[in-house]
Amino acid sequence: MRTVLPVHRSRLAAVSHRLGRLALPVLVVGALAHRAQIVTTPQLFGVLGLGFLLAGAAVLLGALAMALLWARGGLGWGRAVRGIGFGLVALLPVALGLVDFVRYPLVADVSTDRETPPPIVAPDGERGTRAYAPGDPEAYPGLVTRRFRVTPAELHAAARSAAEAADWTITGELPPGMPDEPTRFQAVATSLLFAFRDDIAVRILPDPVGARLDIRSASRYGRHDLGANARRIRRFFEDLDAVLVATFGAVEAVEDDEEAEDLPLLDPNAQPREEGPPPTPGTKPEETAPDAPPAADDLPPLPDDLSEIYQ
């Protein structure tokens, strides 16, 4: 009589497979609910933590199951591999975030004007866990104020077009009343994956060469933006340059230390005025008496037809 030995089935592989299949829906549902504003950002952090915890457990249990199957034999290789695969896919945002955490400075508020950044006023209840404050001024030295040879009103229209092209939501605006008046607007940008919302302020001021623009982008939560705000500002400047070129032709930004050009002289042969105090006036010319009116006898005689009228 033949004795059939029972086949060992790995329970760890089955658990790993279930946890991996559960982690992905948790993350997807949490992101969709946050985008639809069904859950708040702090609640989303809890959902993401649960999803990443399930994914990490799936990877660890799957690896342990494969090690035991290799040593003892049995069934469950496929479930263990699938559990590890689902877990690694769910943990991909964590891996990318860790790379950006190391690459970018520890800031969550980036502005082109470090001394007087454009103010940000968040809607009530949406400010986040910290007050707005620009980060390290040396974090992104390449992001500076930009000057353009257009009026503030024209630059405002181009900046608003660039913001709309980036799918920003305009939440407040001070439109230009006159072509050379200061303008500003505020917007909200939503991240693609988990729908995190960051606040943006754009300020435009008159300048001797035309107009100057400052932009500020700040995260509502956390101390590290993983470089998102700096990337957003760079993309905005690229879109703004494209709008200005399409509207006005070749419009290049002016360097911050460049002075306004002097107006040309009305007389091309005139000598340019030298720097220094104004010249001292010369002697006053002598006044000359006006010419006396001619005497009546010196006047020519009138014609015959007119002389009869004046007799």
Structural write-up:
- Helices cover 40% and strands 13% of the residues.
- The protein contains seven helices and six strands.
- Strands 1, 2, 3, 4, 5 and 6 form a six-stranded antiparallel beta sheet that branches.
- A hairpin with a 2-residue loop joins strand 5 and strand 6 (210-219).
- The longest helix is centred in the first third of the chain and has 32 residues, at 41-72.
- It starts with 10 loop residues before the first helix and ends with a helix.
How many beta-strand elements? Answer: 6
Specify the CATH homologous superfamily of the largest domain: Kinase associated domain 1, KA1
Overall pLDDT score = 81
Structural class of the secondary elements? Answer: alpha+beta
Query: In one word, what is the shape?
Result: elongated
CATH topology of the largest domain: TATA-Binding Protein
Topology:
Blueprint: H1 11-35, H2 41-72, H3 77-90, H4 92-103, E1 109-111, E2 146-148, H5 152-165, E3 169-174, E4 183-190, E5 197-207, E6 210-219, H6 228-248, H7 304-310
Antiparallel strand pairs: 1-6, 2-6, 3-4, 4-5, 5-6
Helix pairs in contact: 1-2, 1-3, 2-3, 5-6
Task: Jot down its keywords.
about 300 residues; alpha+beta; TATA-Binding Protein; 2 domains; 6-stranded antiparallel beta sheet; 7 helices; about 15% strand; elongated
How would you briefly describe this protein structure?
With 311 residues, the protein is an alpha+beta fold. It has helices at 11-35, 41-72, 77-90, 92-103, 152-165, 228-248, 304-310; strands spanning 109-111, 146-148, 169-174, 183-190, 197-207, 210-219.
